Sequence to fold (498 residues):
Amino acid sequence: MRPFSLHLSAILLSLVGGVLIALAFPPWNNNWLIWIGFTPVLAGLLLFPRRWVSSLIQGAVFGGTFGGLVFSWLWAGGRLTDWLSNAASLALLGAVWGLFVNFFIRLPARSGDRKVSPILPGYGFNAAAWTNSIAHLRVAFLAAAAWTVLEWTRGVLLPEWNAVGLVLQSNLPLLQISTITGVSGLSFVVVFANLIALTTVRRIILEPGRMTWTSRFDVTATLGVIFLAGIAGFWWLQQTPAGDHKNIALVCPDTVDFDRLLELSKQETGKGIDLFVWRCARFGPGDYKLLSDSLVEKSAGLVSGTTSAENGSLGGTTIFIPGAIRNYFLIPSRRDFFLPWAGAVGRTLNPFQFADTNWVTLINWDAGDPRLMRAVVTKQIQAIIGIVDPFPGDEGGTEQLFANLRVWSASLGHPMIFASTKNYAAVVARSGKIVAGKEATPAADVLTGSISVPSPFDSTAYGRYGDWFAVACGAACLVTAISERLNRYHEKSGRFPA
Fold:
């Protein structure tokens, strides 16, 4: 009965971990939980009796719980197939990760010397303590690398929503890591820090007494690297970005009435606005001429979502630039978005040139597909405009879309205008900083902010080299797995001492 109780306890820890990670995401936004959310499941995988079946179940419970909760807005909105795809894919991700941890990750064995000495700062070199610290860093690297490459693999099959590193988008200095590694680097940091937290607590319990700098090296090294990454990100944020500055007016009242939108826009004329963005408007006869006389001849442009429906749902976009009017119609699709290899299939980008800048509008689910975001770089698009209806279910879906889009645009170094309901409308700089929106100013009908537009050929390291970091993590895991299997084979054959 005791082994069964231990395995059940480990599974319950995985359930707790999945809940904690989900609560760190929108709409709950308990960001600090991301630093401890993996600790329960890692404790179950590493500190409890090991059985591959048990590890598989623990990982599946962790991933499935996280996916089921964080995508619960899809269930509430009636998109059950999409919800199942996300919950099942994250359960599979967790199961494979649990197996990897079970087969290839071992914590250092506990020391037989439990002599207790005063808990005071210790000095000097301790070979055993140093070896354990290095071992902890190694297992943290492997666990984080395995999760990172599996998360990236899931993103190849499904739109890569809600990677665990997404929560760090609220920390602007650390968000700058994504300009080099993409969101994969943020996920790696999260898992790595969680495992070091677990090993630190374990070490305090198993090795009571005086701690030397060598026995704290794994903790200090981890904290030091995170601190230096934050300092580097802070320094980067202080640099003045190269590129032209464009003044944006995002008009986002809770109405699609043309007259009201035009009235609000007229209040901003004369303030050097380069581009107006309306989330959605219902145009009537004569409105185009009225709008042209009011805005275009003043050399300002406008991008507006359009609707003909009573409920104001988006049906396309209309773009007004001096001397031209362009209309794009949204073709309704009944296809579920979160199905393997769905996403960007059959979708195209429709950029337009205005004010020496190449812009693109992404509507609804188009704005949620990272594959279209990556195409922004190849098309030499400089600024992104996302026009979004409130997503199905509660407001969590819209908030999660904004968070994902913010991380993707920051990783590519492109500014973004997010035109949705008032609470989630925002103008975001290329660094990911919200220059106008709920976080920067109280909710208002008109948000104004200035963005720096990169040159068509300017991109971040991630924009140039893509998912190199996730691929490198996969290579490290593969080499480790082959090496471990060969070592165990030689140990069993007696060629090398065990």
